[in-house]
Amino acid sequence: MPRCGPGKWRATCWPGTGNKPAPGVVATGMTTDGRGRVRTEPGTKRVRAVFGGQVVADTLHPLMVWEVPYYPVYYVPREDVRTEYLVATGETAHSPSRGDADVFTVRVGDREAAGAALEYQDSPLEALKGHVRLDFAAMDAWFEEDEEIFVHPRDPRTRVDILASSRHVRIEIDGVTVAESRSPRLLFETGLPTRYYLPKTDVRLDLLEPSDTITRCPYKGEASYYSVRVGDRLHSDVVWYYRSPLPESQKVQGLVAFYDEKVDVYLDGVKQERPKTKF
């Protein structure tokens, strides 16, 4: 499972604009063989990175960089990084689109994150010059303004809407109805199929088996999982739920959702085509 929680996948185009970048976005770094597309956009939030009890970066001018199509990472202007905590390794890291980067270890006292900082001083992408890339997972915490963020920076073009509905949702696995509800909440997330969150009272709880799997999403929080046993067959991690979702996703607290990719979903009596995603 990916670090990013259930259903975290995005299309490679910018929503509503075909394959052209939205206003204010710079699309750069398409290599001649079609690999390595990178796009950048100036951020508007104050961003801080914390490691070893110290703020190692604090900027009002973050650069959002889409190294992959699915989500951005933060690059911080060098002047907003505590460079005394950066220790040169003498190594370089190569990217087909971003060029060669000097590699640094982040060291604070007796704590260190080996190779956690990159600086593309001679990048063919002009926007990256003068910026430091801190590995998100290697830091102890990241903050946008005064709120901690998790997994990766939130994409400003990803929207999550959670709506109460009276649609009739029925979930089948191996021909057995495992959930049926007329009071679902529908979660619409940019670039993803609709997810149906159901009250637990509308689910065959006797078929659910707790799982140790945990995933995290920057928009919804930490998800826990159930597997479903139908007859002698165990369907692993096909159900997830959020005990304590992030504020913007509070409406799904205590509800459960099924991977539409792995179960049969009937909406108002009509069997839905299973969506094709990386899940």
UniProtKB/TrEMBL annotation:
InterPro entries: DUF427, DUF427_sf. It holds the Pfam family NTP_transf_9. Residues 47-132, 169-261 form the DUF427 domain. PANTHER family: BLR5716 PROTEIN, DUF427 DOMAIN PROTEIN (AFU_ORTHOLOGUE AFUA_3G02220). This is Uncharacterized protein (DUF427 family).
